[in-house]
Amino acid sequence: MDVKDLCLGALTYGDATGYDIKKFFESSFSHCFLAGYGSIYPALAELTAEKLVTARTVPGQGGPSRKIYKLTEAGRKAFLARLKQTVPQHKVKSEFLVLMHFAELLPPARLNAILDERLEDIRHQLELIQEFEARTVAQGSANAPGARFVCGFGKAVMAAASDYIHAHRGGLLRAGRRPHSSNKKPARAGVRSPQATSRNRGYTNA
Amino acid sequence: MDVKDLCLGALTYGDATGYDIKKFFESSFSHCFLAGYGSIYPALAELTAEKLVTARTVPGQGGPSRKIYKLTEAGRKAFLARLKQTVPQHKVKSEFLVLMHFAELLPPARLNAILDERLEDIRHQLELIQEFEARTVAQGSANAPGARFVCGFGKAVMAAASDYIHAHRGGLLRAGRRPHSSNKKPARAGVRSPQATSRNRGYTNA
DNA sequence: TGTCCCGTATATCAGCCCGATATAGGATGG
DNA sequence: CCATCCTATATCGGGCTGATATACGGGACA
């Protein structure tokens, strides 16, 4: 499941340019999958070479020329095959949470700013999802159960995140103290958090 | 905020090898940030070259030799500086949700298997968080507010995801129908979901 | 006893992705 | 009239992922 597959998926909704496809990702998947031009254009070039899509160039009528891509029958089959084969991953990469882990090392003002920023971003993502939902209803293409499931999932998860931040930001702020456990070392420190093993015990942090 | 910074952060808890650092990431950040050896070892090499950490090699006493890294004063300062400068991102990359978006194109059995897999993964992540919490309490290094915040965040978000899946998987399954909107095209199809603009209108999907 | 697998530990590499950047014309708006 | 934004394509360096190689000790099991 790479950007090539995502492009095939986008093209199942109709012909589109690379630019269109990026807009589609932003409107449908902004909370769970994003791809930049640096991924999309090479992907479309490869798909064309593999005959999974065809491209027709339309000279620019007021603007740069456009390449409109169309899914071939082979492309549609390849997409369905990938949907059946892929082992779907779900990964979160959050510098935000890493920063929060080290909250004790940050000035409270900065901490506050970061939390506000995160809340604002969540609010924005929720807005995007609601716009998408409104649009699908307007287009009569509502009751696509997959799309509705994904929207609901995003809303549920982000509402939980927002609620959690509101409920616990006080506890974070009220604890502005020195690096880690001040001076006196805790019982057994060191990075090694999982239980120490035989040849592992007590090596570091001697 | 790259893997180099994460390594500095891990080393604020005490000296460690590259292997230890990976274990630390897995135990503390498995639900929000992971890095493989392919990122960690080069990062440690660069940090050594920049004098932000020092390395001492311990010949293997029953096993391969180990390189134990230690944060320098410059390294500690650099880490604090990065914490203050970074604009923290929070990104989700979910092939799972993309697949769910195209749920109509999947056989129900496969759909069920994927949902079960996702639930199992969530369960496992929650378990890891609880182990981490138990360990910090046992080590007396509990009441580190940052770490507690991150654990709570992970639990809240994943509980919401799990609840959502349980509540809505029925709706997904009960809708096994043909690709997208069967035969008759919807009012205006095509990838272009955001409102069409002047030079954009009606180009594709003619 | 031999063997097989697992855990510890380091390291590299191809391939993919991200973010920034360049280019360029039309529309919009102060 | 000029600045800024939107449409649209494309490339590139740097960073990360996942797989792979190497090596030794210990425990399980027959």
Account of the protein in words:
The structure is a homodimer of 206-residue chains. By secondary structure, the first copy, chain A, is mainly alpha-helical. Chain A has helices at 3-11, 18-28, 37-49, 73-85, 95-101, 108-138, 145-173; strands at 53-58, 66-71, 90-94. In chain A, strands 1-2 form a two-stranded antiparallel sheet. In chain A, strand 1 and strand 2 form a beta hairpin. In chain A, helix 2 (18-28) packs across helix 3. The first copy, chain A, starts with a helix and ends in a 33-residue tail after the last helix. Chains A and B meet through helix 1, helix 2, helix 4, strand 3 and helix 5 of A and helix 1, helix 2, helix 4, strand 3 and helix 5 of B. Strand 3 of chain A pairs antiparallel with strand 3 of chain B, so a sheet runs across the interface.
Question: What secondary-structure arrangement, pairings included, does this model have?
Answer:
2 copies of one chain form a homodimer.
Chain A: H1 3-11, H2 18-28, H3 37-49, E1 53-58, E2 66-71, H4 73-85, E3 90-94, H5 95-101, H6 108-138, H7 145-173
Antiparallel strand pairs in A: 1-2
Helix pairs in contact in A: 2-3, 6-7
The structure holds a DNA duplex (30 and 30 nucleotides).
